[in-house]
Amino acid sequence: MTWTERLTLFSPADFAALATLFCVWLVVGWRIEHPSAKHPSVSTIMANYRREWMRQMLDRDPRIFDAQTIATLRQGTSFFASTSMIAIGGVLAVIGNANNLASVAQDLTLMAHPPIVWEIKLLLVVFFLTNAFLKFVWSNRLFGYCSVLMGAVPNDPNDPRAPAMAHKAGELNVTAARSFNRGLRAVYFALASVCWLGGPFLLLTGAIMTLIVIWRREFASQSRGILLEKEYSGLHTP
To answer: Which pLDDT tens digit goes with each residue over 39-82?
Structure first.
């Protein structure tokens, strides 16, 4: 069966739901990282706190707290990277058992499709999980780079090199967190893409529900309100 013939196994509703899923994934990610000045996202607010953290580190002696915090952040990225790898392996194992999957899916959804249809749908889950894994691994490396730069910051806060190096460490910290957040969003949409097994309308519902959850956490959560209290206005924004 050629790829053209395989594509005919999917309905226009499948392609519409799939396009919506990718559009939501890309648009919400862009908006979170490029919010308006009057309505910043949690990720943007936290980026400013990360920069402030590196500036405060200059006057902290010893800097054990800072080292421990970076180590904790790296442990988080390692955990999610490992989890993503396990999930990828699990989905690939299911794809390798496509005949059994097709029979089970037919019983659950009452839709008779050849195994290739279910394999392609699961490949969408693998795509998002792989994207998440790569983001988590890169985030782990960036937090490692940040820890090296933190160690290279002179102990004397009056050293003329100290502010510049702390700034570099802060920017690496922000970049690492951005990659980590992208990985988390990919995991969210991997879960949403599982809904495609139930049909295009369920996939569309999963995409919309994921959008609502992510949007609320970034722009309308209680934690965002806490971060936006008076202390936030005093932080320096470069």
So the answer is: 999 999 999 999 999 999 988 888 899 999 999 999 999 999 99
* Residue tagged 């394999």 (tokens): 119
pTM for the structure as a whole: 0.88
Per residue in 113-170, pLDDT (tens digit) is 667 788 888 999 999 999 999 999 999 999 999 999 999 999 888 888 999 999 999 9
How far from chain centre, in Å, is Cα 102?
30
Instruction: State the sign of the Cα–Cα–Cα–Cα dihedral 43, 45, 46, 50.
Output: positive
Cα Rg of the chain (Å, integer): 22
Q: Supply 89's token pair.
A: 């392996």
Domain extents in the chain: 41-233
CA–CA separation, 30 vs 36, rounded Å?
Answer: 12
> 3-state SS of 142-209?
HHHHHHHHHHHCCCCCCCCCHHHHHHHHHHHHHHHHHHHHHHHHHHHHHHHHHHHHHCHHHHHHHHHH
Positive or negative: CA dihedral 90, 91, 93, 99 = positive
